[in-house]
Amino acid sequence: MPDEVLSQSEIDALLSAISSGEMDANQLKEEEKDKKVKVYDFKRALRFSKDQIRSISRIHDNFARLLSTYFSAQLRTYVHIAVASVDQIPYEEFIRSIPTKTILNVYSVAPLDGRIIFEFNPNIAYAMLDRMLGGKGQSVNKIDTLTDIETTLMSQLFEKALDNLQEAWGTVVEIDPILEDFEVNPQFLQLVSPNETVVVVSLDTAIGESSGMINICIPHVVLEPIIPKLSVHYWMQNENTKERKPEEYESISKNIEKARLDLSVILGETTITVEDLLFLDSNDTIVLNKHISDPLVLEIDRVPKFHVQPGKRKSQVAVQIIHDIQGGEVDDE
């Protein structure tokens, strides 16, 4: 184990404590000789690094924002969803932590192996159902007596939310989530072995006066093929090496060539008083600031670009470009 490096302030505090007698130098030497033992629980194996957990948290921060917008639109009320925590725990501990009667949705996430679980707290699930049926969003816990209609409505609402999950994970891997099972008893769900490590993302959810948690359980077997992509180094390297393909440049160029521009030719400008403007009449003459022999200015989307001279082409008024306008912000763009 490498030696720990102390900062200058820590060194000064240590010397001050020794000199004042608050700390005994001999006692300090004895403590250094003692072996440092770190407790490790093999039943609670940590298979994801802090860096990878942060990446998963960042993905689900985006997912929470997308889900808030989706549910707010579907339920026609303000819904707030935010990531509360991201932990890695044994699957058995996750099952014990959720209510004995709750709303469980099981999704496959092809092309990844395994399945993930969305657990909706009954308070949240019934507040959503109440809003869908025209209520105020009040929660009534009656999981034991779910009707077929209630089950179908909930399943349809949660299934349509999968587009947000697909978009949130799109920065790492393209997945095709599909709702495979709807369950109310967690004891009937044995996706992986009890000691298998899972990542549990807890989303703090509020719908009107009702609040609760949405828990997402992602087994290690699901994330194993993409673990290298959850590293910050991979994200940074991917950003630095991202280059457009030649066909992409060609497609962009063709689209730009079809873009329409607003061209206008300025004959001249002048300034008059409001009084003169009010008394203007037919046959009055307004003198512009251009001499008849001066070139005119052609503007592209209100930006001066060329000097031109007026003329005629066949039966239409036209201008002929003399030269482009140099300098200024036009060339900088």
Automatic annotation (TrEMBL):
The keyword Cell membrane applies. Residues 255-323 form the Flagellar motor switch protein FliN-like C-terminal domain. It comes from the Bacteria. It is found in: Bacterial flagellum basal body; Cell membrane. Its main location: other. The keyword Thylakoid does not apply. InterPro entries: CheC-like_sf, Flag_FliM, FliN-like_C, SpoA-like_sf. Keywords: Bacterial flagellum, Cell membrane, Cell projection, Chemotaxis, Cilium, Flagellar rotation, Flagellum, Membrane. This is Flagellar motor switch protein FliM. It comes from Gracilibacillus marinus. The gene is fliM.
